């Protein structure tokens, strides 16, 4: 089973399912509030299967576990198998280690059609993950319809062309790229996710990373521009004119109508303009908290002097999560060198568009979420500069996301070898679900990208760079810190 449940006791005997289709369509759980809210108990006896959850979410996870006891055909959309199926008698009690078990999906660099987002939510839920952080806007595209500012999507949702491979190579493909979600699409995505106990956390990244918005409304910036066709950090930044600040609040007003999540992403990363960075972090802090929400910012927002309490996504390397938690902020751990799924899965030269440091399946499985009361949990980040289709997203996400599910749900003593053993069965489930994961021994020929070069980084070098960039964070967290 994957993620591995806390406790499994196998008993003698088995239950025989004579009518699989009916069994599955009626499989559901009861609620017992004495169990942890996301916890459950599954009991299989010779006379039946019972699922009890601490809440509807717990019951849902119990059902996910029962599916793992059945033939992998249950992961297909339809099948022809009349049974009988035999399930061993077993008692499983389980609950997650962390409350925030997330995945950030960048739908700005490459748009992911609604249909594929729904499918991706199914895959998160199958792994008992519960947060989909949608990175909806960036220099290269604005993907969310805003009624008050239609140019954000009529102009901002597409670009002339894209870079091929890493930006150092300065190569372009001459092919337009675009797409956006209407507000009706978003309501559908949010409702679909909620049925699977996945919270959709939207992110409107600003004041840097806004070139697509600035192409649509140049008066919000400093100069005329177009939606970026290049990867990397662009210069575009929102100005702080009162009209611009008001427009941004209007946008967030529409975001709040669409997304019921407690956390709302405000970005705040990789912005050269300190004044704009502070202004927007503080304005949005007031706006969001007045509406009962909590801002979620990338760890760069801590550069803002006297930053009020907000939740921080700690991405710049190991050690930063603990320092931020010690400084009093709630944190979601997502260190790039452990959970950036755009980073290369091996140092095999066949790896498609290899960027970042090596991040193997084993590295992700060994990732330890720091145990601190203000660490809410962790998320993987799936940036999509180099994932131009859902097929490539599958390749980058799986099976590393399966390993991550275990790091946030059940980081208990198991060994990597045992994980790999369980993964062998799990890959059959992914096959049945139609997931084009990376085979354990390397990419299939059609998963390679000999046409596009990457930019591999060395781990020691990257860690040194991150240590330098995040010195200020460690000072914040020190007991006699000078903040
Ligand atoms: C850093 S993580 C970024 C993204 C890039 C990513 C590529 C963060 C807040 N910013 O804009 O897509 O690196 O790995």
Number of discrete helical segments: 16
Contiguous runs where pLDDT drops below 50 for at least 5 residues:
none
Ligands bound, unique: ligand TNX
**Assembly type:** single chain
What do we call the CATH homologous superfamily of the largest domain? Glycosidases
Q: What CATH architecture of the largest domain do you see?
A: Alpha-Beta Barrel
Description:
It is a single chain. By secondary structure, this protein is of the alpha/beta class. It folds into 2 domains: 7-94, Chitobiase, domain 2; 100-471, Alpha-Beta Barrel (TIM Barrel), CATH 3.20.20.80. Helix content is 33%, strand content 19%. The chain has 16 helices and 19 strands. The strands form 5 sheets. Strands 6-7-12-13-14-15-16-18 form an 8-stranded parallel β-barrel, surrounded by 6 helices. β3 (40-45) and β4 (48-53) form a beta hairpin. The longest helix is centred in the C-terminal third of the chain and has 18 residues, at 416-433. The protein is globular and about 70 Å long. Bound molecules: ligand TNX. Ligand TNX is lined by residues 269-270, 298, 315, 340, 342, 356, 383, 385.
């Amino acid at each position: 089973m994957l993620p591995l449940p806390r406790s499994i006791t196998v008993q003698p005997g088995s239950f025989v399912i004579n009518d699989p289709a009916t069994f599955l369509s009626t499989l559901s759980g009861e609620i017992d509030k004495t169990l942890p809210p996301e916890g459950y108990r599954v009991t299989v006896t010779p006379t039946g299967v019972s699922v009890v959850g601490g809440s509807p979410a717990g019951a849902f996870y119990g059902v996910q576990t029962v599916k793992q006891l059945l033939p992998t055909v249950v992961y297909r959309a339809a099948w022809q198998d009349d049974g009988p199926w035999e399930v061993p008698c077993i008692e499983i009690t389980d609950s997650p280690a962390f409350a925030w078990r997330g995945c950030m999906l960048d739908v700005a660099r490459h748009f992911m059609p609604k249909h594929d987002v729904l499918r991706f939510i199914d895959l998160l839920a199958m792994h008992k993950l519960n947060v989909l952080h949608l990175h909806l806007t960036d220099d290269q595209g604005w993907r969310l319809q805003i009624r008050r500012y239609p140019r954000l999507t009529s102009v901002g949702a597409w670009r002339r062309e894209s870079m091929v491979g890493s930006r150092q190579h300065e190569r372009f493909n001459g092919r337009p790229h675009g797409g956006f979600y209407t507000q009706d699409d978003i309501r559908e995505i949010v409702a679909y996710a909620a049925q699977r106990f996945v919270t959709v956390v939207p992110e409107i990244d600003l004041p840097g990373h806004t070139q697509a918005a600035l192409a649509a409304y140049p008066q919000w910036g400093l100069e005329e521009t177009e939606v970026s066709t290049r990867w990397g950090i662009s210069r575009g930044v929102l100005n702080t004119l009162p009209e611009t600040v008001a427009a941004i609040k209007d946008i967030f007003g529409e975001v709040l109508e669409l997304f019921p999540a407690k956390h709302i992403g405000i970005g705040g990363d990789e912005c050269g303009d300190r004044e704009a960075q502070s202004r927007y972090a503080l304005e949005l802090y007031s706006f969001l908290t007045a509406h009962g929400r909590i801002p979620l910012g990338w760890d760069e927002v801590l550069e803002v002097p006297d930053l009020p309490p907000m939740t921080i996504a700690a991405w710049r390397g190991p050690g930063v999560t603990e320092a931020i938690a010690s400084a009093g902020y709630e944190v979601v751990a997502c260190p790039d060198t452990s959970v950036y799924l755009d980073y290369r899965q091996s140092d095999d030269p066949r790896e498609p568009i290899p960027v970042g440091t090596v991040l193997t399946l084993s590295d992700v499985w060994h990732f330890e979420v720091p145990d601190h009361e203000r660490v809410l949990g962790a998320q993987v980040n799936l940036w999509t500069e180099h994932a131009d289709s859902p097929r490539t997203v599958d390749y980058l996400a799986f099976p590393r996301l399966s390993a991550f599910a275990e790091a946030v749900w059940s980081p208990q003593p198991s060994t990597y070898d045992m994980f790999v053993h369980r993964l062998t069965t799990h890959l059959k489930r992914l096959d049945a679900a139609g997931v084009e994961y990376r085979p354990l021994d390397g990419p299939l020929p059609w998963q390679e990208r000999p046409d596009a070069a990457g930019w591999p980084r060395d781990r020691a070098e990257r860690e040194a760079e991150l240590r330098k960039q995040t010195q200020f964070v460690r000072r914040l967290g020190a007991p006699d810190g000078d903040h």
